[in-house]
Amino acid sequence: MIDSTTQIMKMSYYGGLYKKLSGSLRTFSLNISDEDSLNTPLFKDEPLVDVGMKTYGGIHLIEGDSNGKGNHYRTLGHRLDRRRKLIKARRIVIDVVCAVALLGIVLMMIETEFYIFRYTDKADAASVLFKISISISTVFLLLGICLDYYVDLKIKALDAGVRDWKTVFTNSTALCLFFELVVCSIHPFPGDMRFQYVSPYGQARKVSIDAILSILMMSRLYLIAKFAVVHSRLLTDSSTNSIGALSKIKINTIFVFKAAMTNNPAQLLVSVMLTTFIVNTWAMRTCESYYIGTVDPNSYMEIMWLIATTFLTVGYGDKIPQSYCGRYISICTGLMGVGTTALLVAVLARKLEQTRSERYVFNMVSRIQIEKRRKTAAANVIKSVIQLWMVRKYSSEDKALKRKYMDHLKASIRQLRTAKMEKAHIDEFNVGILEVSETVNRISDTFDKFERGEHKREESRNVSLENRLLGIEQKLDEIRTLLNVTR
């Protein structure tokens, strides 16, 4: 019998699925004591307490103690529900983080524009208030990033089947977290920090460091990529997550970017180009306004022209940056322009490429036209040979006429060979992996049919040979019977 004070297990197996048993267990005992009478039943129902479930090698075991203190009951459905809740929580965290980051960028741009238009100074109360607000939003942003990593580690721990999220916290994760915290912590600090700046033309002056910090603060825009990932259907769809987990494919920013380039390449490239153009234009104008001091704040159109020519790698040279900061931004703009142009060329090449069906139709039409040319060239060859034979027979002394029809014959032969080469070239490029597989399958089917036919013919030959042998044996028996009768 089962002792209720010891650890117990209950498990039921129905068609490959493990199911929790009812709250009682029927036990059987053959040890009958003196106190038991003959009417005592052999089967007894004993109550079981609620226990937890663990997984060992794919088998779900439920364990507990007599006091009912066991582990949490966890099945596949509970794990999927838990994962769905964590993904939803991560989406909310990313939404808040992006909102806080964009709020900090907007406050920074307002403070910068006020300074450029000479509405405020770095020591004014309005500027200090803006910078304090930016610092507060930065603190909340850093806390949100840490919370995002915590939820992500919880998801990874749940996928790996472990309980402690610290188990999946690797060195690469720590490095990425540190890098994001450093990038997102850059912002214009309260106060007026200045340093000695020497322009490319040798002019030295004290300038504020806020321009560099404001431009580097724009790097927070990478959080938009995270926002797109958590709101993508590739991450929210359960079937896609299951397929990705089985295929060992991580659905991250790169995967979503590739999917977007496959589905909507034009919209994505236009968005990247416009964002790069606007952000770099503002950054260039900020650099020139801070570190030159004599730049007209209304020269936004000229800066746009400079960024456009740099982004398109034209470089007319009529406008050039006047500060080191502007030159660095020009280099970054040129690199972004080269990368975006390469992606644009790749997308256009893929869009202009013929599909498989279109290629088949084009090759078929080309083959028909080349076949007509080949037949025409073959007919011209035959006609030229006949005319040359007639000239040699009836006008052998007319060398000019003979040379004329000889040239016609050579031209017709050349056209015939060219048509054959073009047809072979089309047939060569028309053969792909699918065509090769179809040809191999066709050959295999033909070989199987041939083997079956040979087997049937061999069986028929064997049957006919056996029949002939039986006939010969019968005739020999008849001859032997006749010989015995004559004797």
Describe the structure.
The chain has helices at residues 76-116, 125-160, 171-185, 210-217, 223-230, 233-236, 238-246, 253-263, 265-291, 300-311, 324-352, 356-394, 399-430, 433-486, and strands at 8-9, 12-14, 17-19, 24-28, 43-47, 52-56, 59-64, 194-198, 204-208. With 487 residues, the protein is mainly alpha-helical. Helix 1 (76-116) packs antiparallel against helix 2 and helix 9 (265-291) packs across helix 10 (300-311). The radius of gyration is 43 Å and the shape is flat. The N and C termini lie far apart (97 Å). Residues 1-32 and 48-73 have low confidence and may be disordered.
What's the Cα radius of gyration?
43 Å
Structural class: mainly alpha
Rounded to the nearest angstrom, the distance between the terminal CA atoms is: 97 Å
Q: What is the typical, i.e. mean, pLDDT? A: 77
Tell me the helix content.
55-70%
Percent in strands: 5-15%
Shape: flat
Largest sheet: 3 strands, antiparallel
- Multimeric organization: single chain
Number of DSSP-assigned strands: 9
Order of helices and strands: EEEEEEEHHHEEHHHHHHHHHHH
Strand line-up in the sheet with most strands: 1-7-6
The low-confidence parts are 1-32, 48-73
Total of helices: 14
